[in-house]
Design goal:
Elements lengths: L22 H7 L20 H11 L4 E5 L5 E3 L2 E2 L6 H7 L10 E6 L3 H7 L9 E7 L8 H5 L5 H4 L5 H8 L2 E4 L3 H6 L7 E3 L5 H13 L4 H17 L6 H23 L1 H5 L4 H16 L2 E2 L4 E4 L20 E6 L1 E2 L8 E6 L6 H22 L8 H18 L7 H5 L43 E4 L2 E4 L13 E4 L2 E6 L2 E4 L8 H11 L6
Helix pairs in contact: 11-13, 11-17, 14-15
Length: 520
């Protein structure tokens, strides 16, 4: 192996660079920049809502240090990173949007005395039991090496960041330079308990675990505490406030524009060897132009691919007569995401067999809606919504002659044969994550009662794979899913995606209007 090069391996990424380094350049590049602080800074849209969220954390964990990391940049390939997206708990508690703020930490430091609480009330009125600090990397001076030479963080490369004062105005949170954050969160672990959101920042977790070990803390007990924190922060998002619902409406509006573009691309898709990707990119162009991007990988699945539940390769052909299952959601700048599915006939008309399957799925969705709305008449649990849809699915499969047992036996816990053709659940919570509140306890999620402010999907489906020898030949290769986003209200439920064509006749008219003309 050659050892002719003496430069460090970690520095060789810069071998392609011709970046100047003379003293004359350094002096010159540091001069002549307008560094006037911003004076017209406005609070973030969520800033009026985040204090109560932080107060809930403070009330739940009195006397403990709480650490919520945004997470670091993640390498995509060599020296290029993925577009940054902070941990959802960090977003929820700070109100920050888009790609803010890699490596940041939100820290709840317990106030030791009543006097300390009073002295910090003006800074952190939202969490009287804690002093809350947003530790982040503030804007560097033009005379620093970072300014012109750091391709990850330097202003010359990636644009300016906020200074400490600006960030404080924008978020309503006390701020500090993150260069000393690690010392702050790992100090005194022998006398103060610390909980950290795990899974966001591995280096931070390792530092805290090492400090715990040095303080002879029980690591197993500490990790249980971390799990309790993750659980609480997840459950804190089960009920959406007015701002969150507004952001979900925004994401759904962007998603509708994307679906219209995708529907309009159907005929073009039939002429391309990767027709599914034509549909995918048509949707995602709207998501990126009008929002932050997509909330999850788009599923644009034609024909038999629609029977693969998470088909995201989207490299297949789109043929006349196919159904295309499009499962897509735009993520607003606030990072709240929609999640909508429609099944589209490429030719603008469902065949009789496609229509039978589509109508069965729509009936199941309507049954789930009705069950959810009935919470005004008595308690309805989240799992009851799924059960209502499954009863319809089982009955229609029986009508199709596919069930090997009675409807009642299939619906029993010991049966479930109908689930062969729909193995996924009917609903999941929706918000900052497409599968939101995923760390919530079972009795708060699956067994939880529906309450106003909850937002979740209703998305039954039927999937008859081409290789399925237990269904008639005319069923094979047909997959149908219909998915809407639902808000629980005091009066029932609101279909937030009601503006999307939904019935078979509406979908046919949609395709015929935006993608006219047969291709056969």
């Amino acid at each position: 192996m050659s050892t002719s090069s003496s430069d460090d391996l970690s520095d060789r990424v810069n071998n392609r660079s011709h970046r100047p380094s003379s003293n004359a350049f350094r002096d010159f590049v540091a001069s002549g920049w307008d560094r006037t602080p911003l004076t017209d800074v406005a609070p973030l849209p969520a800033a009026a809502w985040t204090p109560e969220r932080r107060a809930a954390v403070s009330r739940r964990f009195p006397g403990e240090r709480i650490v919520v990391p945004a997470g670091p940049l993640k390498v995509r390939s060599n020296d290029t990173d993925y577009r940054f997206r902070a941990h959802s708990a960090f977003i929820h508690l700070t109100g920050l949007e888009t790609e803010s703020e890699p490596d940041a930490l939100l820290v709840f430091e317990p106030n030791d005395t009543a006097e300390a609480a009073a002295s910090t009330a003006a800074v952190s009125p939202d969490a009287a039991g804690h002093t809350v600090t947003l530790w982040f990397r503030p804007r560097a001076g033009a005379d620093t090496e970072e300014f012109f030479s750091d391709a990850r963080y330097g202003e010359y490369w990636v644009g300016p960041r906020d200074d400490l004062e600006t960030m404080s105005v924008r978020t309503g949170i006390r701020t500090a330079d993150s260069s000393t954050a690690l010392d702050s969160v790992t100090k005194d672990l022998g006398s103060v308990s610390v909980r950290v959101v795990r899974g966001a920042d591995q280096a931070l977790e390792q530092a805290i675990d090492a400090a715990r070990a040095q303080a002879s803390a029980d690591q197993e007990t500490a990790e249980v505490g971390d799990d309790e924190l993750a659980e609480f922060l997840s459950e804190l998002r089960l009920i959406k406030d007015e701002h969150e619902v507004g952001q979900l409406r925004r994401a759904i509006d962007i998603t509708r524009a994307g679906f219209d573009r995708a529907v309009a691309s159907l005929q073009e898709a039939t002429r391309h060897p990767r027709g599914e990707r034509v549909i995918e990119t048509s949707f995602e162009s709207a998501a990126r132009l009008d929002g932050y991007g997509v909330g999850y990988d788009t599923i644009a699945a034609a024909g038999d691919h629609a029977c693969t539940l998470h088909w995201i390769r989207n490299d297949g052909t789109v043929r006349p007569g196919d159904l295309v299952l499009l499962d897509a959601g735009a993520e607003a700048d606030s990072l709240y995401t929609a999640d909508i599915t429609r099944t589209l006939p490429v030719d603008g008309t469902f065949t009789p067999v496609q229509a039978r399957i589509y109508d069965a799925v729509l009936e199941a969705a309507d049954a789930a809606f009705a069950k959810a709305a009935s919470h005004v008449d008595g308690p309805v649990r989240f799992r009851d919504v799924h059960a209502a849809a499954m009863e319809v699915i089982a009955r229609r499969l029986h009508d199709f002659g596919l069930l090997p047992v009675s409807v009642e036996e299939s619906l029993s816990d010991a049966g479930q044969q109908h689930r062969r053709w729909m193995v996924h659940g009917t609903s999941h919570h929706l918000g900052l994550d497409v599968h939101d509140c995923a760390q919530a306890r079972r009795d708060m999620y699956l067994d939880g009662l529906l309450e106003p402010g909850m937002v979740f999907t209703i998305e039954p489906g039927l999937y008859f794979k081409a290789a399925d020898q237990l269904v008639p030949a005319e069923f094979r290769g047909i997959g149908v899913r219909i998915e809407d986003d639902v808000l629980v209200t005091p009066d029932g439920v609101e279909n937030l995606s009601a503006g999307f064509p939904r019935t078979r006749a509406e979908v046919e008219a949609w395709v015929q209007q935006l993608a006219p003309g047969r291709t056969d």
